[in-house]
Amino acid sequence: MKTALITGGGGAIAEQIALRLEARGYRLVLADVSRARMQSVAAKLQEEPTLVHCDLSTIDGIRTFADLVEGEYPDLDLLVNNAGYIEPGDLSDLSADDVDRHILINLVAPMQITRAAVKNMRARGSGDVLAIVSMGGIIALRGSAAYSASKFGLRGFHTSIQQELAGSGVRVMGVFPSGVDTPMLRKEAVHASGSPLNFVGTVLAPEQIGEACMSALESGKLETYVPYVDSLTTRLLGAFPWLIRRVEPPFAKIGEKGRRKYLARIGSGAS
What we know:
The chain is an alpha/beta fold. The protein has one domain (3-266): Rossmann fold (3-Layer(aba) Sandwich), CATH 3.40.50.720. 52% of the residues lie in helices and 14% in strands. Strands 3-2-1-4-5-6-7 form a 7-stranded parallel sheet, with helices on both faces. Strand 4, helix 4 and strand 5 (127-132) form a beta-alpha-beta unit. Helix 4 runs parallel beside helix 5. The longest helix is centred in the middle third of the chain and has 29 residues, at 96-124. It starts with a strand and ends in a 5-residue tail after the last helix.
């Protein structure tokens, strides 16, 4: 039986990934800072997963968990770097701790955990590394400087290690969603500095990200975009970032309408 480890294992996206991996015969290991959230996900699974408490917001916590992955799970078949963090706001309004959390949780943690897992995967000639990246790793929006910096870094990390691992039997894949209906997006929606561009298109359901992850595992492609049509504009602006300031005003108006609709739908009211 194959083994998969999912960080951020108590979240809505992790739940959808876990359900689909279990259906495909994987034994699951969930890792999260909240045992209660992991137990909530575990209750929806047919088999009892292994629950591992970890804090990926500190260097010591990251290194401790990476050492555990290397030592306790030498036969790990699939690593899913799903843990994420966002605190919307202009850089000057963020605390030093907020900036650190973005980089530690969104970038340093997946780098160190991947380094630990890949040692064993490479030695035996097989394994998969999958990360939930973000369209925010392709295009940087106002009010998301720390978040985009971390996700741009994660995208670059994946691009590099895919080349390093070519021919080793270890695959590297990233899923790049637009806005997903999770607590992170809800924080964006109610925050004064949250970008309305997150709401230009339809807000995705966690189930759609779960399906996208399964598609990524089937195809083995480096990057999977969800939805693909949104990625066309995103990648164009990512290639020509000077265009962002020109197109932001009209898109922001559309996004603000979408934000208000989203808030009304989730029952928070428009701010």
